Amino acid sequence: MTDTPASPSAQPAPEARRGREARKAARSARGAVSVPYISRNLPLTEVLSEEGLKLIVANAEMLCQEIGLEFRDYPSALERFKAAGADIKGNRVRFPKGLLRQLCATAPADYIQHARNPARSVHIGGKDTVFAPVYGSPFVTDLDQGRRYGTIEDFRNFVKLAYVSPHMHHSGGTVCEPVDLPVNKRHLDMVYSHIKYSDKPFMGSVTHPERARDTVRMAEIVFGKAFLETNTVVTSLINANSPLVWDSSMLGAAEAYAAANQATIITPFILSGAMSPVSVAGTLTQVLAEVMAGTAFCQLVRPGAPVIFGTFVSTLSMQSGAPTFGTPEASLAIYGAAQLARFMKMPFRTGGSLCASKVPDAQAAYESANTLIPTIHAGTNFVLHAAGWLEGGLASSYEKFVMDCDQLGQMHVLAKGIDLSENAQALDAFREVGPGGHFLGCAHTQANFESAFYRSFTADNNSVEQWMAEGSQDAYVRANKIWKKWLADYEAPPLDPAVDEALLAFIAEKKASMPDANY
Amino acid sequence: MTDTPASPSAQPAPEARRGREARKAARSARGAVSVPYISRNLPLTEVLSEEGLKLIVANAEMLCQEIGLEFRDYPSALERFKAAGADIKGNRVRFPKGLLRQLCATAPADYIQHARNPARSVHIGGKDTVFAPVYGSPFVTDLDQGRRYGTIEDFRNFVKLAYVSPHMHHSGGTVCEPVDLPVNKRHLDMVYSHIKYSDKPFMGSVTHPERARDTVRMAEIVFGKAFLETNTVVTSLINANSPLVWDSSMLGAAEAYAAANQATIITPFILSGAMSPVSVAGTLTQVLAEVMAGTAFCQLVRPGAPVIFGTFVSTLSMQSGAPTFGTPEASLAIYGAAQLARFMKMPFRTGGSLCASKVPDAQAAYESANTLIPTIHAGTNFVLHAAGWLEGGLASSYEKFVMDCDQLGQMHVLAKGIDLSENAQALDAFREVGPGGHFLGCAHTQANFESAFYRSFTADNNSVEQWMAEGSQDAYVRANKIWKKWLADYEAPPLDPAVDEALLAFIAEKKASMPDANY
After folding, report:
1. Is residue A396 classed as helix, strand or coil in its secondary structure?
2. Which is it for the CA torsion B149, B152, B153, B154, positive or negative?
3. d(C-alpha A203, C-alpha A310), whole Å
4. A244 with B440: Cβ contact below 8 A
5. DSSP state at residue B66
6. How many CB contacts within 8 angstroms connect chain A with chain B?
7. Residue in A382, A380, A375 with CA at minimum distance from that of residue A265
């Protein structure tokens, strides 16, 4: 599980061609250009001393031993834990000291999630960071139409935007809820959209064990049944019902994926102050307890099944009870949880571009940056909600999606650290220019200017006069044009027609087998 | 120079009083409440390995020896350097290996800048971080009146806002240019405004040696001449004329301050790609060379005079030539320069809340956060431009000032790190609440909720329905109301009438002694 796939390097644009063919080729190239996932060359920022880390671990062990966790309405989980040596009383499971860590030890330190286009496969763990879009919003919003329920059309649009974005490595999962489709069938259209409109890796359905199994079946159609037996092609999000509860639908989905050797992100979803104590240290203690228990369950189902140590922690306004994002306490929780994941020798998921703002304004950007930068400095391996999140996750925003993608591009450069090559040292440039000179025209600048600095595609760096002449457009207005251009330029990656046909046949058969239902 | 002042703790609000007196008291208390400068409890983020750091140092030494720096139109600087053993050819000064570091060794590792209110004195260096407002903008802007030249009225307003902001530790310097006053006299009004309308520490004039001396004279009126001989009460900004040039006006001001035992921030002001090589490593090399040369000059003037290792590095758009801010290369330069300052055992200044945006929109906030967070993680001691910077520093923004101040408040919490006290561990809360419970009402939450989380005063965390009912105001519109309230609530700190009179008499005499001039 420690091999890395061949590095999917950015594909160069093709030679110029003429007329319609050239434009078509340019569009294809645009879609195809992709930057490989980040391999960090930055030291980690760690906020807990070794002593502090040990304290949190000891408290979490105590929590699991003395108070325990509940595994609700899922007898097979209780049976598995009982057989493994835990103490069971009703739904409550208490773990003798050391048992959980021992059970978690079979979880791999890293894994490869294969994409149907091998150049887009991602390595989850170690020094690598993978970005995935916003997940789970019932609403979508854009500057033209405002806020409304998401549809399958919106869903496809976000899949396409994630495919076009060169700095998004993953197609994600529920990029918005397609509320226009029946709940018991929409997972089929969602998984199909990820496969059809993108060739990046994707996430599966978790709302029911049968829907998780459908995801696996569709993946088998794409990758072949034999391939899935020894390889991971789906990573899916399993949230705890915090505090200290795992419920049946999540356990069922986790079991289905683990049994099929597919990856799960075992994630305490916590608004601190309500679902955990009103302190970072207390919250981290709970995070570790919940992740250990969820991971142990997956390892009992199938030792060696890939599991990501997930953490979603934000805070509450203790005055209004509203969730708040990008707060300093949430940043500290990101850093601390990353250390806990490393302690557990597991890949880590947290963070993203989170905010409470209702529009992509300064509040949205401050809060998102306050989440994303710690996410990078903490050494996060899988970043869900990396782009498009607005309004506490209630809405997927088209404009914020492209704004955030620009920030993701910047994080690629930051994570590379400082280039100390002879070229970067630039000693000849000093010799050529000297005191009082200008570097713009010197040989070193001429040789390096094209690739020297990250180029933002959302920032306006013009003079105020130029900016006013162009209509005084703020970032929101400019981003509106960008996502429309991305969608206009989108061209689907090729999909084997036989595979497409088999997927559609599977979906048709599944849909015909049950009535529409909204649960 | 290593003593720290008595910790200026936040002053509690007074007991409730009745009627007008109570309101007046509340206003006073609001102005007076101030959070002490940050004492970091976070480990540093360092991007250069020890080997990388040594490489940059060796290259900078080579630069100073082989290429040298120019000290223009300032013969006394050349004489001082010649006497110290440097090689002088015209204005070009080359330094034998090791000489500059030897000359810089007398610069103190830290110092106290005294404020006229001793509770507001700040410790510059070590683990401490001090925030100061935007500096040097010719324009100001707000939502009502738009962009216009700054006036002395605007200047006073920004001094008042910095005084009212609980998370701003310093009154700064040229918070905007008072363009309505003659250039050769406005420094008198600026320094007076800092003394009169605030009791926080401040910065002096640097546009002419005589204006620096005027600043020192006014400080002597406030603090007493004897006090200044052994204490530092002014910190002023001395910019290099990059690349590798120190010019006469800056050298003259630096000499005036150093001679009076007052602090200077020796700062390469660099747009990388034009004023330094188009690489971070090359830029850091130049930064170190320029800071060492400027610091050595101050130490030759007066060994032991406080000097801050300053760095202002941003990037150019290599396509349009426009300055860009909040870029990943600038973040890396912040981290790298901080390591160089620690290598030199000097306090460090960089960063702030920088952006290129013309309005306080998402671009402004992303870029500002991309600057401010690295500023904090790098361990910066003095943060100029911490609030109010807009449009590449061309405009001081009223709305962005309060937005940024809110971010500064958050940085106070981040820099504290994770509280691991028994209370923060919250084990009793787990025992009380248990799996599936709710922490909102538990004893631990009740005891801690008031101080548990930082409370943003600019964010809107309400539901979208509530937000729409209140007029769908974005952060820009909300911030407009906040700065107006701050100014309305402002009440000047007491100033000894005899001191005030002496200051006004000095200013009147100086102004009468010369004609108005705009140079």
Report:
1. strand
2. positive
3. 14
4. no
5. I
6. 399
7. A382
How many DSSP H helices and E strands does chain A contain? 19, 20
Please tell me the distance from the alpha carbon of residue A334 to that of residue B152, in angstroms, as a whole number.
44
Q: B246 near B71, Cβ under 8 Å?
A: yes
Residue A377, Cα to own-chain centre: how many angstroms? 16
Q: Which fold has domain A36-417+454-519?
A: TIM Barrel (3.20.20)
DSSP B127-156: TEEEE------SEEEETTTEEEE--HHHHH
Q: Which of chain A's residues have a Cβ under 8 Å away from the Cβ of B389? A: none
d(CA A321, CA A323): 7
Residue of A nearest to B361 (CA): A362
Which chain B positions have a beta carbon within 8 Å of A294's beta carbon? none
Q: Are A368 and A389 in contact (CB under 8 A)?
A: yes
Token look-up 């019902």 returns A241
Copy the structure tokens of residue A8.
Answer: 């999917």
CATH class of B111-415: alpha beta
Q: Of A360, A421, A439, which has the smallest distance from its Cβ to B274's Cβ?
A: A439
Question: Among residues of chain A, what percentage have pLDDT more than 70?
Answer: 93
Sequence ranges of the domains in chain B: 111-415, 425-473
Test B279 with A455 for CB contact under 8 angstroms: no
- Torsion angles phi and psi, residue A25, rounded to 5: -60, -40
Beta bridge partners of B113: B122, B232
The helix or strand, by DSSP H or E, that contains position A251, with its residue range, turns out to be helix A248-259
Q: Which residues of A touch B461 (CB under 8 A)?
A: 317, 320, 322-324, 356, 392
pLDDT classification of A33: cutoffs 50, 70, 90: low
> How many angstroms separate the CA atoms of A233 and A224, rounded?
11
| Contact (Cβ atoms closer than 8 angstroms) between residue B122 and residue B114 | no
Query: Which residues 413-472 in chain A show a CB within 8 A of chain B?
Result: 413-414, 417-421, 423-427, 429-431, 433-440, 444-445, 448-450, 452-456, 458-464, 467-468, 472
Tokens of B177: 């240019």
pLDDT of residue A11: 32
**A window 106-145, beta carbon within 8 A of B:** none
If pLDDT is split at 50, 70 and 90, which confidence band does B518 have? Answer: confident
- Which three-class secondary structure state does DSSP give residue A147? strand
Q: How far is residue A69's CA from residue A94's CA, in Å, rounded to a whole number?
A: 7
Check CB contact under 8 Å for B279 and A423. yes
- Residue A518's pLDDT band, with cuts at 50, 70 and 90, is confident
One-letter amino acid at A393 equals: G
Question: Where do the H-state alpha helices sit in B67-116?
Answer: 75-84, 99-104
Q: Which residue has the tokens 């140092």?
A: B57
Tokens linked to A239: 């949230």
Residues of B in contact with A313 (CB under 8 A): none
C-beta atoms of A45 and B452 within 8 A: no
Question: ∠ CA B513-B515-B519 to the nearest 5 degrees?
Answer: 115
> Nearest-5° angle of CA A388, CA A390, CA A391?
165
pTM over 0.90: yes
